[in-house]
Design brief:
The protein is mainly alpha-helical and about 160 residues long. The chain has one domain. The chain contains two helices and no strands. It is rod-shaped.
Length: about 160
């Protein structure tokens, strides 16, 4: 069985305390320093990771804001381009209307000139016919029957001129 010897017990305790004091002075401080340094390193790494996470979140928000701003700019540009295209379309339509109006006025002026020229020619022909009729009247002495025949011939000549 196991016996307890008081001398051995005292020397074990003395050895334990001496060894404990030596280790406390020599090994305990470096071990604690190493553990504290490791703990500090881990704590700093966690802080840096949290800061990096916050910074990444801020950068993400900035990117989303920039994306939203870019989309707004694109929408503005598209609206401006649509407005410019609408303005150009309206200008082209107005220009075409003006051209059509000018062509219409030119055609009207041409028709009026042609009408005036035809009226002038008709006046000349009527004057020629009147002169012929007058010269025919002057040449012969007319009675009422001849006078009526001459007027009927004159009217027939006028109708033929209108047809031509």
């Amino acid at each position: 069985m196991l016996q307890l010897e008081p001398g051995m017990m005292i020397w074990t305790w003395v050895t334990f305390f001496v060894l404990f004091l030596i280790l406390a002075r020599v090994a305990w401080k470096p071990l604690l320093t190493t553990v504290e340094n490791r703990e500090k390193t881990i704590s700093d790494s966690i802080k840096r990771a949290e800061e990096a996470k916050l910074q990444a979140g801020k950068m993400m928000e900035e990117q989303q804001k920039m994306l939203a701003h870019a989309q707004e700019d694109i929408q503005k540009m598209m609206k401006e381009n649509k407005d410019v295209a609408e303005t150009i379309k309206n200008e082209m339509i107005e220009k075409a209307r003006q051209e059509a109006q000018k062509l219409h006025e030119r055609a009207r002026a041409d028709i009026e000139r042609e009408t005036e020229a035809a009226a002038l020619q008709l006046k000349k022909q009527v004057a020629d016919l009147v002169i012929q009729a007058a010269s025919g009247l002057i040449r012969e002495n007319l009675d009422s029957k001849k006078h009526r025949d001459l007027i009927d011939d004159y009217i027939k000549d006028l109708e033929q001129l209108k047809k031509n």
